[in-house]
Amino acid sequence: MAKTIRKTSKEPIKLPYILLEMFLVTILIISTYLYFDINNKIKKENKSLDNLKNTYEENINILKEKEKSLNELNQQIEKYNDLDKEIENTKNEFFNTVKQLEQDIKDGKSNKKIAYMTFDDGPYFNTYKVLDILDRYDVKATFFTTNVNGKVYYEETDTYNYDLFKEYIKRGHTIANHTYTHAIFKGLYDSVDTFMDSLMRQHEHIKEEANGYETKIVRFPGGSGTAGNLKYPIIEALREKGYGWVDWNAYDGDGWDLRTQSEAWGYLKKSLDENIEVILFHDYCKITTDLLPEFIEYMQDKGYILLPLFYDSVMINK
Ligand SMILES: [Zn+2]
């Protein structure tokens, strides 16, 4: 009996225990679930954080690369900005050397010879042929430019080729001034002002067409003697503008009524008698263009160095 009583006295305690156990198990299950769920979420979060970190690092690397190429680009731009200066310096150095050589020739210290080939009245459509021949021999020359339409001298020419101004520079030649109008008998030499107006108009024209190139060398249309009494007053006005001027001491006669190549050779051989020559040609003349390759070879055989004119040359009168 006593056992039964003990048994029954324990009965009411068992149920809450079971409930408590169930409750605890439930809590445990929920906790375990929550633990794994949270853990998964954390893992997911970590993974997305890792992804973000990777993306961020990739972006940083891209930015670093971009910054590097930007710096390189800036360096290149700086180099380009310095390029004009560098070209100018190289040109000046070159002309200084030539100037020294000129002086040595004049003083009899050097037996070398220099010839400055000059082409007047262009640019013409024919000028490209002249430029190509000069390129073939790697020879630089000087072009005394004007704005008279080619029709005046060469009836085949019906357009004035402005692109040639940039072409002269590109191919390393010297551009010089031969006045805008070239109107020898139609007003150019009426007064100092008419001459200077035409000079400055061509000065601006060259500057505009040749990317800001400024020349300080002029050749009087027809030669300085054509200016007559105005020659010295004009020279004075040129000096004020910082301009130098040059005539020529050799020619092939292509400014006159030249008919044959042998006639041209006759003039050339007769006039080539100095150690520093300034040779007058016209780039509209077919005879000159045709004899040019043979002429360049002839001059080089005779020991002449063929060069473009420059402001400080002893041949430029100031
Ligand atoms: Zn001329």
**What's the number of helices?**
7
N-to-C SSE string, H for helix and E for strand = HEHEHEHEHEEHEHE
Q: What is the name of the CATH architecture of the domain at 97-307?
A: Alpha-Beta Barrel
CATH class of the domain at 97-307: Alpha Beta
Q: What molecules are bound to this protein?
A: zinc ion
Largest sheet: 6 strands, parallel
Can you give the mean pLDDT? 89
Q: How would you describe the shape?
A: rod-shaped
Annotated CATH homologous superfamily of the domain at 97-307? Glycoside hydrolase/deacetylase
- Cα-atom radius of gyration: 44 Å
Per DSSP E runs of 2 or more residues, the count of β-strands stands at: 8
Runs in which pLDDT lies below 50 for 5 or more consecutive residues are none
Helix content: 55-70%
**Within the CATH hierarchy, at the fold level, what is the topology of the domain at 97-307?**
TIM Barrel
Structural class: alpha/beta
Question: Topology of this protein?
Answer:
Elements: H1 2-106, E1 113-120, H2 127-136, E2 142-145, H3 163-170, E3 174-177, H4 192-209, E4 217-218, H5 231-240, E5 244-245, E6 250-251, H6 261-271, E7 276-282, H7 286-301, E8 304-307
Parallel strand pairs: 1-2, 1-7, 1-8, 2-3, 4-5, 6-7
The structure holds zinc ion.
